[in-house]
Amino acid sequence: QGYQGMVDGGDNIVEVSWESVSSILQVGGTVIGSARCKSFRTHEGRLQAAYNLVQRGITNLCVIGGDGSLTGANLFREEWSGLLEELAEKGKIDAEAVKKYAYLNIVGMVGSIDNDFCGTDMTIGTDSALHRIIEVVDAIMTTAQSHQRTFVLEVMGRHCGYLALVSALACGADWVFIPEYPPEEGWEDTMCVKLSE
């Protein structure tokens, strides 16, 4: 359950084997679960998470998420040595553990359908979202043609028009709005002319 699992510990932190991940290729979404974690935003929450990791000898994390998850990971890394010292002062871990687990290594992977992160060709989730949009448009097209109607489809992407633009190209849309290129004054008339053509 993301950071919540790290804070709660117990059965949320488990070792997986090849058998554990067998037959998950076709499963959508996050098979290991995902949760927003208010407690990880607090110092006490991060302290508990550090304790749970040290208890299991874990000093390597692979964090897949968006801005919040990756910001949290960086903060956790920055605080790591201080958290261990605090745990030692409280008598929860010994000085040897502080030395042994002195470094926290983090790999951050961007999990966002928006495809709005610089330095990566495609963020995790973008391709799946694009496929889903195209499936939906394929289903709508039949209805649009039989009823001779125009359909307006809104896709996600926040401030990034990647999904809108690429799905519009893939589906042969007649008109597309993207945040990077806001419509100019009088776009309504221009659009009507283009559509009537």
List the topology elements.
Layout: H1 2-8, H2 43-55, E1 60-65, H3 67-89, H4 95-100, E2 105-110, H5 126-147, H6 162-171, H7 187-196
Parallel strand pairs: 1-2
Helix pairs in contact: 1-2, 2-3, 5-6
Pathway: Carbohydrate degradation; glycolysis; D-glyceraldehyde 3-phosphate and glycerone phosphate from D-glucose: step 3/4
InterPro entries: ATP_PFK (IPR022953), Phosphofructokinase_dom (IPR000023), PKF_sf (IPR035966)
GO molecular function: 6-phosphofructokinase activity; AMP binding; ATP binding; fructose-6-phosphate binding; identical protein binding; metal ion binding; monosaccharide binding
Q: How does this structure look, described?
A:
This protein is mainly alpha-helical and 197 residues long. It folds into 2 domains: 2-110, Rossmann fold (3-Layer(aba) Sandwich), CATH 3.40.50; 126-196, Rossmann fold, CATH 3.40.50.460. 46% of the residues lie in helices and 6% in strands. It is built from 7 helices and 2 strands. The protein has helices spanning 2-8, 43-55, 67-89, 95-100, 126-147, 162-171, 187-196, and strands at 60-65, 105-110. Strands 1-2 form a two-stranded parallel sheet. The protein is elongated, with a radius of gyration of 23 Å. The mean pLDDT is 92.
List keywords for this structure.
single chain, 197 residues, mainly alpha, Rossmann fold, 2 domains, two-stranded parallel ribbon, 7 helices
